[in-house]
Design goal:
The complex is a heterodimer of chains A (about 300) and B (about 700). Chain A is an all-alpha fold. Chain A is about 60% helix and about 0% strand. Chain A starts with a helix and ends with a strand. By secondary structure, chain B is mostly helical. In chain B, helix 1 runs antiparallel to helix 2 and helix 7 runs parallel beside helix 18. Chain B is globular. Classes of the chains: A mainly alpha (about 300), B mainly alpha (about 700). Chains A and B meet through helix 6, helix 7 and helix 8 of A and helix 2, helix 6, helix 7, helix 8 and helix 9 of B. Chain B: Its cofactor is Cu(2+); heme b. Chain B: Pfam families: COX1, FixO. Chain B: It is found in: Cell membrane.
């Protein structure tokens, strides 16, 4: 038994399980994904043990609280007895909460406010001389300390990065991640030489979405052309093969206003959109832009 | 001591109250229009005078200076006389102040829709109006200080400390930020350029919030809240400490509007730490307000005045906690430029300023008309509908801001932006814009109810124009001893001087090094002044209020340098920008690197009708740019004005500037013609295209130069 608990705690999921106990819903979601693993049996044991511990702990607490109340009552009785014997009135003890609040606010209660009433009278407005609330003063000190530490950390000891360094780190981390991802994918990155036309519906669908979002601004949703050339006819300024189209998208033609999409679209996305553009050929949309460039015929 | 008889001037208060109510309704209506324009662009009416870019500054100026301003004056004139047991120093000055201020508002209401703007937020009004504001503000100051000096009350109550700080600081802020070089009657260029202009502007902008929207209202709270609750102020000590710490610390916090920009790091850090230190001083005011209500909470349930005040003070507490949190760089990186900030300022504006004003009016009007409130029930309905309005306004904006920001920053696993098309991040939040407009409508309905209620109240009562009062004259005698601060409360002039010193320190320490030390703005050799045509284009950009929706500040984040394809913005790039146009909100994308990104014809089509190029865009069309012509007569004046404030145009260049202008315009016309577009070279659109194509490109010339070496 003991060892199985230990196993659970050494398990990566142990803390998660603890969280699950608190948030049953989260546990549900977790179960769905983890249910096939062998942890299930351990989990059952764990639940049982922790459940029992909690029940016992709650019971103990309840008993302890009850005992405490009984003891308090006995003490109070004795005090009452004593008070009656001495003929004085018994003032109730402030609770822990009241004591804490008093410590934090340090305010004179409303009933006794006459004791701190100043002789100010401005058009009938009076002022009390309550102390600064200690929690407020503490807050003020903490923010001042924060300020000093902040300036020291950033500008005197240079322990924290200022924005330029922060940016460079951010870029480095991202570049490393991208490299890692490329390596994972085996380095088969589509480029203008390896790209091939695909009539796969899901690829063309992705292509259309990108086209409508990004390209339609200049080439119109139907590809008929606007600021940019018509993509539905047989004339092409920079070549009409899938490779040429891919290349134009990737590097752009900055002089003519076609931007480079290399940094914005992934190779797969550029490939999809290239294929989609190929499918636009011959769709004869209404009111097209006049042909530009050279006649391209498929080989 | 013999009692002296005198009377309080209620008539001036009445006039300020009427102005408050009218301009409140107008300002809110303009705001609602702007809010609806963001999801229903047709409400721009296709008119240049009513497009979002011109309506937005009209809304902010109307609610800040006309609504809150008049409310502040109404409350100040009412409370000042009573707290000092005297009539205002001079009735004539009171009336000059009143009519002068309303004339300024009228001038703003005419000039802003006409496109006369400096583009500096909350300081958009052009130089002749700036001068008028200075004069009227001084009249207000003389009237107030004069009243204080002829007082019958020995000590100045805390509300008056706040009024004094307000007067002194707003004067300093307004004068320093409005330094500008006039070009024509209604056109000027900011004295400062780029980073320095940004620093001055946000020192002003932030402290306009502090000393126009906060300190005077804290003063009003200190008078009207204890009066309405009939309870003593909780703590005199707290008043003293939070007053001085508030005015001293507030002034430093401006740079938190410029985190992650080209402002030097040290100035940004000062902005951060002083903003965090502001929590306690701000909360001091909230605590003193709420704790004053101890023993009166049972009445809060029935009394609409107290209800409004409680929510106002609570909103103040929330906004002043949120502000410092927004000043932390990591939180700011997410929220800045988004609708989160719009939510934040409206919690302050609708909650704190609006509700405190409403509470004050509901309390003051029955007293000045010697009657009871016409309908307490209606006031209660106003309270609930107003509260609901605030919630419906703020929550959608928080969600919209967060959603959009996360969309801007999201990358795919392959390292590309998940939403490279900016428009996608806009269409996503349009439902939130609709909800916000509903919230605004509710709030406005509440304000209309109040107007009705107040008019009815006035009708059933009889106005007391001069309220009789009596008090003994102040004995001329030397008083020594007592608490050090109470000694200060007897010396209004010394008090004013000390306040001035307290608010000058922060500004001086931040501004002087930024202006004098060269390393704060490293020069970039390839950055050159704008050409004459670009200058005209830039002025059109300013006139149309483009800066209201488009920033020109690519922050040093991967998500921004990737999206805006270029380097992040450098301080040296803005040295000829009079004024700076970094912006504070991105309803559309950043434009600092837009130069040469698209062909001229793209801009031509896009400005004519944005939805032609970007279906679903909420940017309004600008057809008038195609009919209106650039005024070449003004070129020389612009060049001369800019040279006077440090832009290195050669002496005599103004005489040949128009030749350069024509040449550049012809090039653009030729480019457009190649794409089948015919345009006159003097058309404003040509100048605007020239400016847009220049944006952020100088630094690229530097790169080429570096490569050639």
């Amino acid at each position: 038994m003991k060892s199985s608990i230990k196993n659970i705690f050494s398990h990566k999921q142990a803390w998660l399980l603890l969280v699950m106990l608190i948030f049953p819903l989260m546990g549900f979601a977790q179960e769905a994904t983890e249910s096939e693993q062998s942890i299930w049996t351990n989990e059952f044991v764990f639940y049982t043990v922790v459940g029992m511990v909690i029940v016992v702990a709650l019971l103990t607490l309840a008993v302890a609280y009850y005992v405490l109340q009984v003891v308090k009552l006995i003490i109070l009785r004795e005090k009452e007895q004593k008070a009656i014997e001495e003929g004085v009135e018994l003032a109730p003890e402030p609770s822990l909460w009241q004591r804490m609040m008093h410590k934090l606010t340090d305010s004179v209660p409303v009933e006794k406010e006459e004791t701190v009433m100043l002789d100010h009278d401005y058009d009938g407005i009076k002022e009390l001389d309550n102390h600064l609330p200690p929690w407020w003063t503490a807050l003020f000190y903490v923010t001042i300390i924060f300020g000093v530490v902040y300036i020291l950390a950033y500008h005197v000891f240079d322990t924290l990065p200022l924005q330029e360094e922060e940016y460079n780190t951010q870029m480095k981390v991202a570049a490393a991640k991208i490299e890692e991802r490329k390596a994972e994918q085996g380095g088969d990155v589509i480029d203008e030489n390896t790209v091939v036309f695909t009539d796969n519906a899901s690829n063309l669908d992705t292509g259309k979405k990108i086209f409508d979002g990004q390209c339609a601004a200049c080439h119109r949703t139907d590809g008929g052309g606007g600021v940019g050339p018509n993509l539905t006819d047989d004339y092409w300024l920079h070549g009409g093969s899938i490779n040429d189209i891919f290349k134009t998208i990737k590097y752009g033609v900055p002089d003519k206003g076609m931007i480079s999409w290399e940094a914005i679209l992934s190779p797969a996305q550029m490939s999809d959109v290239s294929s989609y553009i190929v499918t636009l050929k011959g769709t004869n949309p209404p009111d097209p832009k006049a042909p530009q460039g050279d006649l391209y015929q498929e080989e | 001591m013999a009692l002296e008889k005198f009377s309080y001037d209620n008539k001036i208060v009445k006039y300020f109250v009427i102005a408050t109510v009218i301009f409140g309704l107008v300002g809110m209506l303009v705001g609602l229009t702007a809010a609806i324009q963001l999801f229903y662009p047709d409400l721009n009416f296709g008119l240049q005078y009513t497009t979002f870019g011109r309506i937005r500054p009209l809304h902010t100026n109307a609610v800040i200076f006309a609504f809150v301003g008049n409310a502040m004056f109404a409350g100040t004139y009412y409370s000042l006389q009573r707290l000092l047991k005297t009539r205002m120093f001079s009735d004539m000055l009171s009336w000059i102040h009143f009519w002068g201020w309303q004339l300024i508002i009228l001038a703003a209401a005419i000039s802003l829709p006409l496109g006369y703007t400096t583009s500096k937020e909350y300081a958009e009004l052009e130089w002749p109006i700036d001068i008028a504001i200075t004069l009227i503000w001084v009249v207000f100051g003389i009237n107030m200080i004069g009243t204080i000096i002829k007082r019958r009350e020995r000590h100045m109550y805390v509300a008056i400390w706040f009024y004094i700080a307000t007067f002194v600081t707003v004067a300093v802020l307004h004068i320093v930020n409005s330094f500008e070089m006039p070009v024509t009657f209604m056109k000027s260029y900011s004295w400062y350029a780029g980073v320095q202009d940004a620093l001055v502007q946000w020192w002003y902008g932030h402290n306009a919030v502090a000393f126009f929207l906060t300190t005077p209202f804290l003063g009003l709270m200190y008078y009207f809240l204890p009066k309405a609750a009939n309870r003593p102020v909780y703590s005199y000590k707290l008043s003293i400490i939070h007053f001085w710490s508030l005015i001293f610390i507030y002034i430093w916090a401006g740079p938190h509007h410029l985190l992650y920009t080209s402002l030097p790091d040290w100035a940004q850090s000062l902005g951060v730490v002083f903003s965090v230190m502001l929590i306690a001083p701000s909360w001091g005011g909230m605590l003193n307000g709420l704790l004053t209500l101890r023993g009166a909470w049972d009445r809060v349930r029935e009394n609409p005045v107290l209800k409004f005040m409680v929510v106002a003070v609570t909103a103040y507490g929330m906004a002043t906690f949120e502000g410092p949190m927004l000043s932390l760089k990591n939180f700011n990186a997410i929220t800045h430029f988004t609708d989160w900030i719009i939510a934040h300022v409206h919690v302050g504006g609708l909650g704190w300023n609006g509700f405190l004003t409403f509470g004050m009016l509901y309390w003051m009007i029955p007293r000045m008309w010697n009657t009871k409130l016409y309908s307490t029930k209606l006031a209660n309905v106003h309270f609930w509908i107003g509260t609901l309005g605030i919630i419906f306004y703020a929550l959608p904006m928080y969600i919209a801001g967060l959603t959009q920001s996360l969309m801007w920053k999201e990358f795919t696993a392959d390292g590309f932006l998940q939403y490279p098309n900016f428009l996608e991040t806009v269409t996503q939040i349009i439902p939130m814009y609709v909800l916000r407009a509903i919230g605004g409508t509710l709030y406005l309905i509440g304000a209309i109810m109040m107007s009705y209620n107040l008019v009815k109240t006035a009708k059933q009562g009889s106005f007391i124009a001069n309220e009789d009062a009596e008090a003994p004259a102040l004995e001329k005698k030397k008083i020594t001893g007592g608490h050090w601060h109470s000694a200060l409360e007897r010396k209004p002039v010394l008090f004013t001087v000390l306040s001035l010193i307290a608010i000058l320190i922060g500004g001086v320490i931040e501004m002087v090094p930024t202006f004098l030390i060269k390393s704060n703005v490293p020069t970039i050799a390839s950055v050159k002044p704008y050409t004459p045509l670009e200058l005209h284009g830039r002025d059109i950009y300013i006139r149309e209020g483009c800066v209201g929706c488009h920033s020109q500040m690519v922050r040093p984040f991967r998500s921004e340098t990737e999206r805006y394809n270029g380097e992040y913005s450098k301080a040296g790039e803005f040295v000829y920008d009079h004024p700076f146009l970094w912006g504070s909100k991105r309803t559309g994308p950043d434009l600092h690197r837009v130069g040469k990104k698209y062909p001229d014809s793209w801009h031509y089509e896009h400005m004519y009708d944005p939805t032609r190029i970007s279906p679903g865009s909420i940017m309004p069309p600008y057809p008038w740019l195609f009919d209106q012509m650039v005024d070449k007569e003004e070129t020389a004046g612009k060049i001369k004005a800019l040279r006077k404030i440090g832009v290195p145009y050669d002496i005599g260049y103004e005489e040949i500037a128009n030749q350069d202008l024509d040449r550049q315009a012809e090039r653009i016309v030729k480019n457009l013609k190649a794409d089948g577009i015919e345009v006159v070279k003097e058309a404003e659109i040509v100048a605007l295209i020239a400016y847009l194509q220049r944006l952020g490109t100088d630094i690229k010339a530097q790169e080429t130069a570096d490569l050639n070496q």
